[in-house]
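Protein entry
_____________
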Amino acid sequence: SLVRRPRLRRPHASPAMGARFLMGAVGLAADMGANTSNDTILDLDNATSVACYPTQNDAIWRMPYNGWFSYIVDHGDDGWCVLPYRFGHWAFASVLAIMAGLALITTVCIVFIFFRRRIKGCCGDDKESKAMRCPNDAITAIIPCYLPNEQYIIKETVDWIMEKVESPGEFTVFVVYNTPRDLPDIERALKKMQTSEWPQGRRFRVLRVTDSKSKAANLNAALREVTDDYVVIYDADHHPDRQSLMLLWEKMTRLNQDCVQGSYYMRNLRPNQCGCFPPCTFPFLARIIDAEFFVDWFFMKLITRTFFMGQAYFSGSNALWRTAVLGSKEFSTTAQTEDVDMAIQQLLEGRNIEFCAESRSGELAPMGFFACWKQRLRWTMGWDETSLKHGGAFTDTGRLNCRARCGLIWTFIIRWFLTVLTVGAVWIGMPLTIMYPLKIPVWGKLITRLGQTCFFSGCGPWFFATLEAIFQVKHRGRQSCIQVFFVFLVASPFGFASFFLFNLAQQAVSFFKICTGSVSGWEVTSRGPAAAMGFPATSEESGMILVDPDSDDGEAKSSSSSDSESASLSG
């Protein structure tokens, strides 16, 4: 029996195409009569009859619906046959369609954020100038600390915040720590620091929480002791930029927020970067994480805040809070990520939280790949636990509008389904399109165009993230120039695929641990001795000290210039 013949492609108005149209019409008329030697009809599986043609060009010309839903295979002596899409093709096309749509939306959002930032920078006042004109108020900086792990760095962190970070009024640094055993030397040193004279009349407090076994318990104890109206939280390894707190304060007062969350970057970039010592060090780990943080803080988190949730969320450190708001809830002492748990509790109460990517704070990168794996695994398990714990409340409780509820569902629930789709699009689709080139005769026009859309849309974030890194080189000078190259690598489609594979492995381990009930208690990220973190184990040469300057973290400066800088800041 005869089958319905494919429709002819509408030719362009040209003599050559007119001749080709005439030849095609003659061929179609012949097809309507009897089978000719130029094309055949094969019954492949007693159910599907397909038309075959002597050349691939003839088959392309005869593909139905202009080739959108069919593809071509070589059947040897039978010629080139046009086959319609089957279930596998439609499934692959559906995954690609979703990923292409998400990639296009992400690119549009990134373009909007990039140009909005440039326009604000050109038309508005300088943010630091606006911060200096804000009203004064007292702020307490809380630094939770697990002392055995951070005894080598806590004094340096306190000195840095006291002497470098500007504040809008009275300023108190409050170190609250726990330790399973006495550490007489460092504990004695911290107590002595309470009586020291600090710049601008600043005060220092220290409290040991004897019954604490987590960062959350330390924070809960500290909040019961704070009397100032505002608190800013820093981890024990954080060195905030000079103007970071002022930028948080300016945005909080201008927008009347309950919390403003700043961004992070890696400050120990230079040591052990080539994987030579110690053995098996992951090459350039700190710089890769630094680039990832840059893309995340300057684009991806802002996409979530601007286009989905309408709100930001608390991320644990470098965050300014109203004390009464933060103290109204308790940090969970059993959660792997107490910050995310607190963020969801506050968002369900209708609190206003905002991001401020320009408020930066430098932290220490993990000591090696396995330390990074443990840290990221704890983050992944924390997000999964918190999503399962609060997922039901996203739709039926709390003081949230419809947009905020949809944003929470998108951010904490839909991400699991997106992971599955990304596996299909990246780690199944990519090898297939490498083995079988992404061309219309091989895949048909629908899958080919969707695959091309995915790739070129993915190049949008790649381009604009690299361009944003170029615009931000003034932050750390030479280190920021080096950062541009690593942002270029991390934001590329290949960098995305690599990070996704790492995150997928962590997601699988997280689900396994949660489902089997083998999630252990809260674990700290190992810091180790000073030399392992990029600080010299021996004394510096005379007249030279290693500092973390505002312009280029980790570079050598003369002691005289460093002293003059500190004097100008304290003045």
Remarks:
- The two ends are 95 Å apart (CA to CA).
- The longest helix spans residues 87-123.
- Residues 160 and 239 are 6 Å apart (CA to CA).
